[in-house]
Amino acid sequence: MVQAYNFLASWQLFPEKCEFQFGHTPKSGNYKIESIRNGHALGISMNWVSLDNEAFYTQYEVIPDGDIRPFENQELADSIRAKILNASTLQMLFIKEENPFLEVTHEILPNGYLKVTHKGKNKEGDNFTNTEIYHKQLSVLPYASAVGSVAIRPTKEGVIKHKALSAMEEQTNMQLDQIKQQIELLARQAQEIRKRKELSLMIYEARLSFKPQIGHIYHLYERKDGSHMLSLVAPNEWGGAGPFKQFVSSVRLLADHTWMEVTE
Questions:
Q1: C-alpha 93, offset from chain centre
Q2: pLDDT band at 146 (very low <50, low <70, confident <90, very high)
Q3: E-assigned strands of the chain?
Q4: Among candidates 85, 9, 11, which has minimal Cα distance to 42?
Q5: Would you call 171 helix, strand, or coil by DSSP?
Q6: What are the residue ranges of helices labelled H in the chain?
């Protein structure tokens, strides 16, 4: 099933991009499509969590060759017909008592997202259309999905999975945030050390007429010939223009003999 390749992934729901006319509105969801039975069938599995924190889970198999075949859950549907229309469209038709009651169309959009459209009738016989938008996950983490899908019913397994995954996600996100903060701190420290090194090299190449003392503040100037001069005299203490082209910065000598720019 070469054409099915584009669909094979774990897809994460975009709740804010979806439109629902029927069923429980989810706050998070996952829709997984995988190749099974040596590539002769597709395995569909879904997990989702409603706005009321109710967890749902379902899974089934289809052979997308266009033939009508018996459906696993006979309580919900007698048979199913699945067909890959093209490289970006997969369609499923669920049948009960020889009457189609739910059409599910999967479309790969130009931006790479997966659009799943459910068309059917509610208990009152009114037509409904639910549209779901997913983005592809880099890792396979079953975490919640489809509203108008078949075999959707709350299960103990779904609740346990949701709670465990929620705890895992919270912990790993916290650890990743801590690592991110540490990396940002190390990056700032590295930048400060690099800045001190560059400043120190400039000062040690400058003209020195005295021995600098650790912890004291001095003043770095650029001379008219392009060289640098370290002085005890601050810019506002010079009488007249002073023997330099421009003031660079005030600096302090640290215990490790590097120099740090200071603001007085």
A1: 33
A2: very low
A3: 9-13, 26-36, 41-50, 55-62, 65-70, 79-86, 89-96, 99-108, 114-121, 127-136, 153-154, 217-222, 228-231, 246-253, 259-262
A4: 9
A5: helix
A6: 156-204
Question: Which residue do the tokens 């203490």 mark?
Answer: 237
Q: CA angle, corner 218, sides to 230 and 209, nearest 5?
A: 40
Rounded Cα–Cα distance for residues 222 and 148 (Å): 74
Q: Which of 45-54, 80-89, 127-136, 196-205 has the lowest mean pLDDT?
A: 45-54
Q: Which amino acid is at 105?
A: T
CA 62/CA 21 separation, integer angstroms = 26
Percent of the chain with pLDDT over 90: 34
Query: Which of 252, 247, 250, 249 lies closest to 213 in space, CA to CA?
Result: 252
Tokens of 25: 């509105």
22's CB contacts (< 8 A; 6+ apart) are: 120, 122, 128, 130, 147, 148
- Mean pLDDT, rounded, of the chain: 84
Rounded Cα gap, residues 54 and 77, in angstroms:
23
CB–CB of 72/55 below 8 Å?
no
Rounded CA separation 180/48 (Å): 29
Measured distance CA(47)–CA(13) in Å, rounded: 10
Closest CA to 132 of 150, 106, 171: 106
Tell me the pLDDT tens digit for each residue of 40-57: 899 999 888 888 777 788
In the numeric block, the tokens 């600096």 are attached to: 251
Chain-centroid distance, C-alpha 72: 35
